[in-house]
Structure formats: C-alpha cells, structure tokens
Task: inverse folding
C-alpha cells in the first residue's frame, strides 16, 4: 500500500537536497512518486522510511507523515483534537505545536480560525504560519502537527523526523585538526556528497571496496563515510594537512571505536594511479580550489581582492585567469589518471570552484567543453548558496566513469 510523506527541504540548496533524498530512496530500494508544493515535496512511498534510513540524510530536511485530509478546516479540527489526545497519552511531554502552511499565501480566515477557535480548544501552541520554516528549537521541543493547504484541500501531518542539526554542528566544531585557510567543508555537505556518490546502501556494499577522497584535507568527507560504515581511502599532498588528517581519523577510530577500515596516503592526487591499491566503489572530494581570497576596501571605499598568503598584493583579471587555468590542469590530470583505476559507472562527486570577480564568473572549462576524459556529467552542477561577495563559490557536480 502506498504511504504518503511530506518532505520539507528546509535547505537553501533545494535541488541538491532533492537529489540526495531521491538517491537515498533509490539505494534503499524504495518505489516512489513525487509532487512538489513550494518547499514541500510530497512523496508517495511503498513503505515507511525507517529512522536509520532517514538518519543517513545530510540535507536540512524534516519529514511528516500524512494523517488525514479534508476540504474544510472544521473537519481537520476534529482530527487535530483526536490525534493530539492520542499523542498526549503516548508521550510524557505535553508540548504540542500546530503549524499552518499555505504556500506562503496569507489566508486571514484560516489564520483566525486556527488562533481563535482551534487553539483554545485543544490547548496547542500555535506557531506563526507566515514564517516559511520551523526553527530547529521548535522541532526539538514540540511534537509538531502541521496543516498544509494545497489546492483547496487541507492536509493534517505529523512530524516523524527532523534533521539532527545538533550532531552536525557538534562535528563541525569538534575536529582536532582543522584547515581554516582551505575553506571548511561542512559535515552536512560532506554527508550529502557521500550519499550521492554511493551505488547502493552502505549496508549492501560489496566487501573489499572503498570510497576515495583524493584531496582529503582534514578528512570531513572520509569521516562522514566512516560514520556510515563505509571503508575509505584518502590522499593528501600537504605534510601538515596529512598529519592532521591522520590525527582526525585515528581520534575517530579510538573514540567511536569504529572497525571500519581506512587507508591514508601522503601523495599527489594527479598521480593517484600509482598510489591507490584499493578497489574503489565511489569518489567524493573537494579538491584544491585555489588560494584563499580576501576582499579588502581601500581608503576610497573601493574593494580589491587579495590572497591570504599575499594580503598586500591586488589580484587582477589576468591572475584570476591564470589561477583558473592552473586549477584546470590539476583537475584534468587527476581525473585522467583516476579513470585508469575506476570501473565503469563509478560516480565521482566533486566540488569545483566558481570564481566570482568583478561581476564575472570564471568557470572550470573542463565541464563546459566536455573535456572530462573518461567521464560523463551525470547530475549537476548544483551551485551551493553562499554569501554574495564570496570570491570562490562552490558547485557540486556528479560525474560518472564511462
Ligand atoms: C579544499 S581542501 C579539502 C578540504 C577537505 N574537504 C576537508 O574537509 O578538510 C583541498 C586539499 O587538497 C590538498 N591538495 C592540494 N593539491 C593536492 C594534490 N595535488 N594532491 C593531493 N592533495 C592536494 C590541499 O593540501 C588541501 O588539503
């Protein structure tokens, strides 16, 4: 029997979140259909997603199960009363909230009904329906009932899972070695990249295969893979970063007591065919994205770009082009040599930079010119939302070995 779930992709990167959710469904063997309503994605699934499966997700998502639907609010009101009584019996905490969402359109009648009639009757706290998303605090301390209005129908939903943001924030802060100048890849993005790269559920991966990160840095991607029980191989060229990487993964192994295997190599990703001996099942990586840029303002309030290594040197257009060309060379060699060790259809989830300089974007032309020797572009690019004046923006691409 079909079951209906509403996935609210709170993420600012909606397309990426959607790709991740559907990739995890595919890996876990779900059949599904989807309908999109604003930030809500209505999924009909052939079975309930377990908490274990939902906990795999890295995107900022919350999931509700549909309890009922009706054409008017009075009928929904009766359902809310019944459901809230049932839930109060089941749970020791007595905090409930009702949240009304109508695709951001203001409906004064519905609003009045909820706040003046429904709320006093069932003693629920009522959240402001005009805010487009629920805050994590609200999700954490309340059992949320949600009413959604769509095409004149009211749906009553019960929250069954929300993004475990506390644990992800904790991970971002608790690594022993971090690389501030290399740009910190958040754990949630790393988690999404790992999920997007796998051919199947981590529990069904063939034994003896590894996920590869050839530009491992402090190991965020590797940690997110190990966290799901996936064996990993990491390469890192810089000696300081390599030592830090080892510290981070050893610390994880000691503290979480994971027995999942990891292999680390200090070396050059553009020669990885001579380094990696393991069989690779997936690749997820954030390569070197160029020097760390800084915007500065001179005394005439004009902005100029510098790098953290040379804070006094102004960067001009010619230098930006040169930086992009050098990055292209590195990526080209890495991908070409990596193709020698990958089996067909292996996915490579990679972050490429999008350099933003004086209102112009400088792209990695490998993608535009299809110079991806041995690969096809499978999905993306998904441009990651970032601050407006950031000189380097990230975009995620999913390549597939031919
Ligand atoms: C953007 S950082 C990766 C950050 C990583 N995702 C993390 O969570 O820390 C890129 C890393 O690639 C390393 N690197 C640069 N060139 C390399 C190469 N040719 N081979 C291997 N690693 C390289 C840099 O030292 C840097 O640590």
Result:
């Amino acid at each position: 029997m079909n079951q209906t779930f509403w996935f609210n992709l709170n993420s600012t990167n909606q397309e990426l979140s959607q790709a991740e959710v559907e990739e995890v469904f595919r890996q876990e063997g779900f059949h599904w259909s989807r309908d999109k309503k604003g930030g809500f994605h209505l999924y009909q699934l052939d079975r309930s997603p377990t908490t274990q499966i939902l906990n795999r997700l890295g995107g900022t998502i919350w999931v509700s199960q549909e309890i009922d639907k009706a054409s008017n609010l009075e009928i929904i009101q009766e359902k809310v009363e019944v459901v809230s009584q049932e839930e109060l019996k089941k749970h020791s905490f007595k905090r409930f909230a009702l949240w009304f969402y109508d695709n951001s359109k203001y409906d004064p009648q519905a609003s009045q009904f909820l706040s003046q009639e429904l709320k006093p009757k069932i003693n629920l706290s009522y959240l402001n329906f005009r805010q487009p998303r629920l805050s994590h605090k609200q999700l954490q301390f309340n059992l949320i009932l949600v009413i959604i209005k769509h095409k004149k129908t009211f749906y009553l939903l019960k929250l069954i899972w929300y993004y475990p943001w506390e644990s992800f924030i904790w991970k971002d802060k608790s690594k022993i070695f971090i690389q501030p100048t290399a740009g910190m890849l958040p754990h949630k993005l790393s988690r999404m990249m790992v999920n997007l790269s796998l051919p199947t559920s981590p529990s069904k991966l063939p034994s003896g295969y590894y996920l590869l990160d050839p530009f491992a840095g402090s190991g965020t991607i590797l940690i997110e893979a190990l966290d799901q029980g996936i064996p990993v191989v990491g390469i890192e060229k810089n000696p300081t970063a390599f030592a830090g990487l080892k510290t981070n993964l050893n610390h994880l192994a000691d503290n979480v007591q994971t027995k999942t295997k990891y292999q680390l190599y200090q070396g050059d990703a553009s020669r990885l065919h001579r380094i990696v001996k393991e069989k690779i099942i997936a690749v997820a990586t954030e390569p070197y994205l160029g020097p760390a840029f800084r915007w500065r303002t001179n005394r005439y309030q004009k902005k100029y770009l510098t790098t953290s290594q040379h804070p006094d040197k102004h960067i001009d257009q010619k230098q930006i082009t040169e930086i992009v060309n050098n990055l292209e060379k590195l990526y080209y060699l890495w991908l070409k040599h990596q193709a020698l060790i990958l089996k067909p259809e292996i996915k490579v989830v990679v972050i490429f930079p999008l350099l933003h300089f004086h209102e112009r974007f400088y792209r990695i032309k490998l993608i535009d010119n299809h110079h991806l020797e041995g690969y096809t572009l499978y999905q993306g690019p998904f441009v990651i939302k970032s601050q407006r004046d950031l000189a380097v923006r990230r975009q995620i691409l999913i390549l597939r070995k031919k």
